[in-house]
Design brief:
The chain is of the alpha+beta class and 165 residues long. 25% of the residues lie in helices and 35% in strands.
Length: 165
């Protein structure tokens, strides 16, 4: 059986290494999704990975800049994918988001290096909750705090008991 940490790392790498070609088609939205994920994730580095925890660094590139700062949508895309990866470290299947909240505390400038610390804080039935802290590596300042709850989707082939939350 393959190591869940290795699977999570490979999944993040596959997202950031997909070919970023925006093909606007009413029939196939997968290319658009892959474009945005690749665009937002390219350059993320996994530093430490354990069961239920993923620690990464990311230097904000000029392509994600808006008025000199990290574009909020790009930050949210990165956090969403990191949440999926940290759930994979628990040997669980990918899930669908049912609640997603990001608090932006301090702006991030282009070329700032960010530390991303994602932790699974609980599982109940098919529901998993992840908390992610993003800090400026140079200053240690908290720049964003995210919480995401994800639930098993029946088409993913993993059956879990219904949540009693």
């Amino acid at each position: 059986m393959e190591n869940p940490g290795k699977r999570a790392t490979q999944w993040l790498q596959s997202l950031q290494n997909s070919t970023p070609t925006p093909i606007l088609s009413w029939l196939d939205h997968s290319n658009i999704t892959n474009f945005f994920e690749s665009f937002a994730l390219r350059g993320i580095h996994v530093q430490q990975i354990t069961h239920g925890r993923l620690f990464c660094t990311f230097t904000v590139p000029p392509r994600l800049e808006e008025n000199g700062h990290w574009r909020a949508a790009a930050l949210m895309t990165l956090v969403d994918d990191v949440c999926g990866a940290v759930i994979i470290t628990c040997d669980l299947p990918l899930k669908v988001s049912v609640d997603y909240n990001v608090s932006y505390i301090s702006p991030v400038k282009v070329q700032d290096e960010i530390e991303i610390d994602a932790r699974v804080v609980g599982h109940k039935g098919g529901l998993s909750t992840v908390v992610v802290e993003l800090r400026n590596k140079g200053t240690g300042e908290l720049v964003a705090l995210a919480r995401q709850s994800m639930h098993n989707h029946p088409t993913f082939g993993h059956k879990a008991p219904l949540s009693k939350i």
